[in-house]
User: Fold these one by one.
Assistant:
Number 1:
Amino acid sequence: FLEGKTAIVTGSNSGIGLGVARQLARAGADLVLNSFTDRDEDHALAAELAAEHGVTARYIKADMSNAGECRALVEQAGACDILVNNAGIQHVAPIQDFPAEKWDAIIAINLSSAFHCTAAALPLMRKAGWGRVINVASAHGLTASPYKSAYVAAKHGVVGLTKVTALECAREPITCNAICPGYVLTPLVEAQIPDTMKEYGMSREEVIEKVMLERQPSKDFVTVEQLGDTAVFLCSEAAAQITGTTISADGGWTAL
Ligand code: NAD
């Protein structure tokens, strides 16, 4: 049902962004993939998704830490019916040791890029008379953990921005919502398992259950397919009046 719609997904050459892009393409949307690299494999990924789902797909390099590049991404795409603000990074350290440049990078990539991309996309959505802004926040947009000051601040900021965007578009067929995932087994998270096994002298299963999924009552990871299908749902007519809110996919984390 998304044939003829163009979806821009920031930070979509891996993990959740790629999973969301794939499900949107399965529903018929044309894709603009993005990250800050410009490798052959980035463009090959777009070609692969296009062939797999019979849609058009392009990869556009843009560094989401740079306001001008965020806006240029949307301008270069030329159309944007669905904007998924997904790019994000993490750094873990106590506040007094937290490197200022890491703080700035996390706020820029995880929060400000959503503002700049939304600002550039809304005129295109208004011209088309329909739009969906989907922000990938986190359980950390609703709750906190120690040592993740920049990430938690940015993700709470994304939830706030989601509400303001929704209110500014409330009288138009444009919605804005945030998806708040718990732990997702992306390549990034997978890569942390061996080190954590060594650090705690634990088996893979123990690391997953006792360390990673400690706060996730389901004791199961969220999958990128589930998050992609949640994004597809938010694009559907059933979700037309869902706006300015958060959808948690966290195995019960925020119910604790
Ligand atoms: P990931 O590292 O696999 O993906 C992050 C994506 O952002 C990659 O495509 C990366 O290339 C891109 N990116 C990083 N810096 C960028 C920059 N400067 N410019 C453009 N793109 C950039 O991680 P992920 O787990 O898929 O995370 C995606 C989003 O989901 C993030 O916003 C993250 O905070 C959020 N999230 C992840 C989890 C989880 O458990 N993995 C949970 C909740 C929320």
Number 2:
Amino acid sequence: SKKGQVTEKNIHQLCDESFPLCMKILQLHLSRDHHLRNEGRYQYTLFLKGLGLSLTNSVAFWKAHFTKKIEESVFMKKYTYHIRHAYGTEGKMADYRPKSCSDILKGIPGPLEYHGCPFKVLDTIRMKEALHRSGIDRKDYAPIMDQVQNGLPQEACKTYFGLVHGENYPHSSIEHPNVYYDESRKIRLR
Ligand code: SF4
């Protein structure tokens, strides 16, 4: 496959290397629970679409996860509509764009929901767990935790980017998870 092409097979590697924390958390729960609730599915489907994942590959990706727990026929009946909808082949046939940080920041996840911006919605314990999973050194938690506590989620995300990539985010602020991804790929593929 051509360099940089996103398929359902390399999402996990790209996630480890380059996804922002809001998407890493959705992937973590999808892998763990073989399920994601509606809002999380929608946020993640649109992000992956923005990476260039085709509709066919998107269905294959979600199917592989969900059918670890449910029958394929149930998946096809209950869960493919939202994917086709996000790709604009159902409902209003609108070609929905991946959500920006300001859209995602409006999300308020309920029980067993993982959408939204983690730098806004995670409690201190979960935030530290997420930083640990991302390989960030404990001594570097403080600036991120300060920004989280001061209600500066996009600033915290920028500090996080700097720590996981070993160099600073090249723009003044993080406004979109798909731009975060693009900037990460430029560093990783150098
Ligand atoms: Fe995602 Fe934006 Fe929050 Fe970063 S600031 S975790 S890219 S929503």
